[in-house]
Design brief:
single chain; about 575 residues; 6-stranded mixed beta sheet; binds zinc ion; Ribulose 1,5 Bisphosphate Carboxylase/Oxygenase; Rossmann fold; alpha+beta; 6-stranded antiparallel beta sheet
């Protein structure tokens, strides 16, 4: 769509009631001295009005949550498309967000690994094999011969009902016999008690196990796996059933597990997190030397250090313990014997305490087991890390920060994912290796990647998305960033350009983009690439308004709006407007 965004009598902040006509589907640069009113015009007037109209268009229910936005001081704006502002700092402050997650590259990586990743045995490192009808047939023929077998597909397992509809459906699909509660019969003859639980397996074939039946065996197993939702049963007279599941199996150690889904490649999810460190990559161990960090501390000092303050019931317990073990609150730790220390610190051996406490007007007899300082702290920590009560959370944080040493998790080696997920590779690389590459390295990896034809078929779309995002980031000069770099640690210019890359990825059209000095922090050689990005957005049918001082960007604009002449009250006027050849002449 062409035409103009017409702004009439814009008077927000220092703007002097100016009129501007902004051509749509063009690159517009708004320039002028600092404080002349550039962001007041672009962000506080044009973008703000776009936002306000968007909110007004929502249901009253949604508006209640968003609140009403004030109308900017402007007489009218016509021809305004939906507006998106790409600010320097994002609104989301998710501490776990990384370059890869904020650009959706991480999501696509997970899809890639779930779909074409090669799983390896976590015991012996061999590639796992997906059980197929063919490998099941090979196993059966290798180990058996001559018997007659039934090939069945499990349909109903321990469910109440007469299952008439299911049986009808099987019949319509050409099946004739089923095994109902262990008995093979014609489907017509099945009459199940609707109030009881039943098992139903459908009979796919009955045949003799022999090489001459090999093809038929494979075909029937295939049908059974399809009908039984990935499971097939082979029943032989006098022996237990064999169940084959379409899952992964190590050809050497026989270890089996289900194919991993995309969630298994996220350490923020229980499906993917290392079970020992819960996806943190570090484990935490309480260290007595951090609790008793000075040998001269008295037992009383230790109580105060643990609690962060004087705590009566702790002191009472320690007095009672000391009375039995031969120390007082004022005994320095260094004067305690090893035996006394073991009881105090570790609760070894466990000791039962009985003492009296006076609480306001009442007296209580208390009997408690003494567990030891460290076991007590450990219990409070375990409770606190899974509790939503603030008091427990406060304790858990203190214990983690003050009394514990963090060490790299020994199960995942700090890699955060569970071993099965880490054992899946694409082009020989596990997912965490890829996530830690720089954008430049990752882009080489995905350009050079060689896949089989089957893998290409499955993964081409996903690869296209990954490559597009990497290329956009390369094109705006972010080649040096690591994919696992935390978003919080990015500079304003970097995060703005990443968000720009994400926008291009989403390929919106008919949108107004507002950007505030995106060239900040960018090397001169990369400014050309940034301008290319604006042109790309424009070619998709979008209007791009950029606040900018950079000369190259100004010259690249289709239309320039120059505000000034000076800052503050001496600014806010339209100095010049038009194409570069007119304004810059
Ligand atoms: Zn193995
Ligand atoms: Zn771990």
């Amino acid at each position: 769509m062409t035409g103009y965004i017409k702004v009439r009598k814009a008077a927000e902040h220092n703007l002097k009631g100016i009129d501007v006509d902004i051509p749509r589907d063009r690159l517009i640069v708004v320039t002028g001295p600092s404080g002349s009113g550039k962001s007041t015009l672009v962000l506080d007037t044009i973008f703000a009005e776009g936002q306000r109209r968007y909110v007004e268009s929502l249901s009253s229910y949604a508006r209640r949550f968003l609140g009403r936005l004030d109308k900017p001081k402007v007489e009218k704006i016509t021809g305004l498309p939906p507006a998106i502002s790409i600010e320097q700092k994002g609104r989301t402050k998710n501490p776990r967000s990384t370059v890869a997650t904020s650009t959706e590259i991480q999501d696509y990586l997970r899809l890639l690994y779930a779909n074409i990743g090669v799983p390896h045995c976590v015991e012996c490192g061999r590639p796992m094999e997906q059980l197929t009808a063919e490998s099941a047939a090979r196993l059966l023929l290798d180990e058996n011969g001559g018997q007659h077998i039934h090939i069945l597909a499990p349909i109903v397992q321990g469910e109440t009902g007469n299952h008439v509809e299911i049986l009808d459906g099987l019949h319509k699909n050409g099946f004739v016999r089923v095994r109902a509660d262990g008995e093979v019969k014609d489907i017509d003859e099945v009459d199940l008690d609707a109030r009881k639980k039943h098992d139903i397996d459908v009979v796919v074939d009955r045949l003799e196990l022999s090489q001459k039946n090999r093809e038929r065996l494979i075909g029937s197993l295939e049908t059974a796996l399809e009908t039984g939702d990935g499971r097939a049963i082979v029943s032989r007279d006098g022996v237990d059933d064999l169940t084959f599941a379409e899952q992964l199996m190590c050809p050497k150690c026989g270890k089996q597990y289900n194919k991993l889904g995309a969630k298994a490649f996220s350490y923020n999810r229980p499906d993917g997190a290392c079970p020992v460190c819960n996806g943190l990559g570090v484990t935490m161990a309480l260290d007595p030397d951090l609790v008793i960090n000075d040998e001269n501390m008295t037992v009383h000092d230790i109580s105060r250090r643990i609690n962060g303050s004087e705590r009566k019931w702790w002191n009472e317990r320690l007095v009672a313990l000391g009375a039995l073990q031969g120390f007082t609150l004022e005994t320095p730790y260094k004067e305690l014997t090893q035996k006394q220390r073991d009881v105090l610190v570790w609760g070894k051996p466990a000791i039962s305490l009985s003492y009296t406490t006076v609480n306001e007007n009442s007296t209580w007899e208390i009997t408690r087991k003494w567990h030891g300082l460290i076991p007590w702290l450990q219990r409070v920590f375990d409770k606190g890390s899974s509790s939503d009560k603030q008091w427990y959370q406060w304790w858990a944080r203190r214990i983690a920060n003050e009394f514990s040493r963090k060490s790299t998790c020994e199960v995942c080696n700090g890699r955060k994912l569970k071993p099965e997920s880490l054992a899946v590779t694409v082009a020989g690389q596990p997912i965490d290796e890829i996530s830690s590459l720089t954008i430049k390295e990752a882009s080489h990896f995905f350009e050079d990647i060689t896949l089989t034809e089957r893998e290409h078929k499955i993964a081409d779309l996903v690869l296209k998305e990954i490559r597009a995002r990497l290329n956009f980031m390369l094109s705006v000069g972010l080649d040096y960033l690591n994919l696992d770099r935390l978003s919080m640690t990015l500079s304003g210019g970097e995060s703005q350009r990443i968000r720009l890359a994400t926008q291009i990825g989403s390929a919106l059209t008919g949108v107004l983009y507002c950007l505030d000095e995106p060239s900040i922090g960018l090397h001169a050689r990369d400014i050309g690439k940034l301008i290319e990005t604006f042109y790309h957005l424009r070619s998709l049918g979008n209007t791009v308004i950029v606040i900018e001082h950079d000369r190259d960007t100004i010259e690249a604009a289709d239309h320039i709006i120059d505000l000034g002449p000076l800052a503050g009250v001496n600014g806010g006027e339209l100095v010049a407007e038009g194409p570069p050849e007119k304004v810059l002449a």
